[in-house]
C-alpha cells in the first residue's frame, strides 16, 4: 500500500504483554485488520477492530519508519491516537527464519503428543501464529 | 539462671534460624527482581486493554444491546470473590490481610442478604476459606512462582461460564497490588461489571459521543475483547500478587534476621556474664580454700 502524502501525524502505540514496543508520531499506519489491511491516517473515525497475525507498517511522511510482526490482538483508534494491542510484537529485523521453522516443527510435535483438548487448541493457535510469521518472512523474501 | 550449656544450645538454635531466614530473604530478593520486571512490563498492556474497554463503555448508551459482562446485571443475587494469596507462608501479614478483606466483603454481602461464591488462588487462602465456607469455594488453584497466563485464562473462562449460567451476577477480585518491594496494598477490583477505576484518564473528551466503528462487528469484537480483558486483569493480579508475595517475604525475613541478630547478641551477653560469674565463683572457692589452708 502506497502512503498518501500527508505531513499530519498522530500518536501510535504498539503494546504487548512484554511492554511498550513502539510509541511514536507517525503519519500513516498500515495494520492487518481482521477484514483486510487498514490504513490509518490522522483523524480517522473512532475504530475498533480485531488484529490478524501479520505485518504492521509505520510511515513518517513518505518514508517507511518501522515494520513489525504482530500476533493476534486489537486495534483501538480513538480519533486522536491509535493503540495496537498485540499478544506478540516483534520487529521484522528480529525475525529469524531457521528459528521460526524450528518453532513450527516443535509445535507440530507437541500437538501430536497433546492429549488435553484445551491444550491442543492453544497449541494449534500458537502454530497459526508461527505460520503467519513464516508467511511474512516469505513475503519479505528472507 | 540458665546453665552455660543451656545458653549454648539456645544460641546455636538462634544462629541456625538466622541462617535460614537470611537465605530465605536472599532467595526472595532474587525472585522478586524477576517478578517485579514481569509485573512492570505487563502494566502498559493491561492498562491499554482496560482503557480500550472503558472507551467502549463511555459510548455505551448508544448501544441497543449492551453486553452484560461489561455493564453487569441489575438484579444482583450472588457475588463471586476471586481471592489471590500465596502458596507458602512466612511472608508476614501478606495473606492475613487478604483473607480479612475477603471476610469483610462476605460480611457485607451477607448483610445485604446476598449469596456469595469463592475462587481461591494460592493454598493459604484456600485452606482458611474452605475451612470456614466449605460449600462456597467453587474452584481453587495453586499460586506458583511464575503465574501462567493459561491459569488466568482458565479462571476467566469459568467466571464467564458461571456468569452466563446465572450462578453469579458479579465478580470482585481481591489481591495485593504491588506498589514497591516494601509495600503492597490490599486492593479490591470489580471485574464484572467492568470498573475502569484503575485507568487514569488523561483528559475528558468533550463533544458528542461518536460511536465506534467495529470490524467485523460489535458483537464479534466485544465477544473477544471482554474475555481478553478479564483474563488480562486476572493475570495482572496474579503477577502483581506473586511479586508482592516475594516482597513481603523479603521484608518479613529481613525483620526475622534482624531479630535473630538481636537475640543472638543478648544471648552472647548473657552467656559471657554467666561464664564470668562461674569463673568468679570458682576463684572465690579456690582462694577461700587456700586461705583456709594457710590459716592452719
Query: Oligomer, anyone?
Result: heterodimer
Mean pLDDT of chain B: 87
Strand content of chain A: 35-45%
Order of helices and strands of chain B: HHEHEHEHEEEH
Which percent range describes the beta-strand content of chain B? 5-15%
Main beta sheet strand tally, sense and closure of chain B = 5 strands, mixed
Total individual domains of chain A? 2
SSE run of chain A: EEEEEEEEEEHH
Number of strand elements of chain B: 6
Report the count of strand segments of chain A. 10
Task: Give the strand line-up of the largest sheet of chain A.
Answer: 2-1-9-8-5
Q: Considering the protein shown, what is the CATH homologous superfamily of the largest domain in chain A?
A: F0F1 ATP synthase delta/epsilon subunit, N-terminal
According to CATH, the fold-level topology of the largest domain in chain A is ATP Synthase, domain 1
* Overall mean pLDDT of chain A: 85
CA radius of gyration of chain B is: 29 Å
Structural class label of chain B = alpha/beta
Question: Given the structure, what is the number of helices of chain A?
Answer: 2
Shape of chain A: elongated
- Looking across the biggest beta sheet of chain B, what order are the strands in? 3-2-1-4-5
Distance between the termini of chain A: 20 Å
Derived from helix and strand composition plus strand pairing, the structural class of chain A reads alpha+beta
